[in-house]
Amino acid sequence: MHSSSKQGKGSKRSVQFKNTKGCLQIVFSHLVEESGETKRKRFYLSTGYEDTPLNRQLVGDTVRIIQRDVDYGEVDLSLRKYKPAVLLTINSSIPLISPNTPTQSQPTLSKLWEKYSQFKKPQVSPSTYCKDFTKHRNHISKFPSNELKDAALIRDYLLEKLTLDAAKRCLTQVKACCNWALEENLIEVNPFLSMTIKKPKGFSEDEDVNPFGCIPLLR
User: Fold this and answer.
1) How would you write 107-158 as a 3-class SS string?
2) Torsions phi, psi of 148, nearest 5?
3) What class does CATH assign to 105-212?
4) Is the confidence at residue 116, as pLDDT, over 70?
5) How is the chain split into domains, by residue range?
6) CB-count exposure of residue 49 (10 Å: 0-12, 13-18, 19+)
7) Would you state the pLDDT for residue 137?
């Protein structure tokens, strides 16, 4: 269960997720105003995901986002920010969702990057856009998978094919792209949100790793 020591506006307890009939469900309470009165209501956000380790990680990303909004009194009570196709009940029984319930199809990472690039284009210099955004687009086009569900595979690919510094930069940009897509309701969760690549001291280059590995000196 996710918990936070920070107590902000509308916060009484941590946002949690639970197993309900084999599906993961997010539960939290928040203060709302109705007819001039402030009341605490309990929200049930049914994800439609089976209770598996991978899905717990995905749902955990959403839990952290909601917890942050609860702490700062910025909860989107419509829940569109957290899951566009969610079933929501307030102060009612927990809805039962079949584990086989189809979820909204997710756009590919390449399509998200193109949309994100167009959004950022007016905000950066032409040289930055041409250099950096094109470079990361080329990296994304070579990923072994373009599906968000394969986030771990993509991270491992970056570590294998790029230097640590280049992998870190690319992952940071992919994460920023998915954060933007989440805010725009283009995706349901950002699977890269909790992923990090720590750069050891002494690594500063930003070039691709030599695909042929190290070549010994001839004597």
Assistant:
1) CCHHHHHHHHHHHHHHHCCHHHHHHHHHHHHHHHHCCCCCCHHHHHHHHHHH
2) -65, -30
3) mainly alpha
4) yes
5) 16-90, 105-212
6) buried
7) 93
Token pair of 70 as six digits = 């609860």
Pairing status of strand 23-34 against strand 16-20? antiparallel
Q: Which two tokens stand for residue 20?
A: 């309900």
Confidence (pLDDT) at 3: 39
The pLDDT value recorded for residue 2 is 42
Nearest Cα to 70, choosing from 27, 119, 133? 27
Q: According to the model, what pLDDT value does residue 130 have?
A: 87
Query: In angstroms, rounded to a whole number, what is the distance separating the alpha carbons of residues 120 and 41?
Result: 38
- Determine the Cα–Cα distance for residues 142 and 106; give it in Å rounded to an integer: 19
Full-model pTM: 0.47
Confidence band for 89, pLDDT divided at 50, 70 and 90: very low
Helix (H, G, I), strand (E, B) or coil at 39: strand
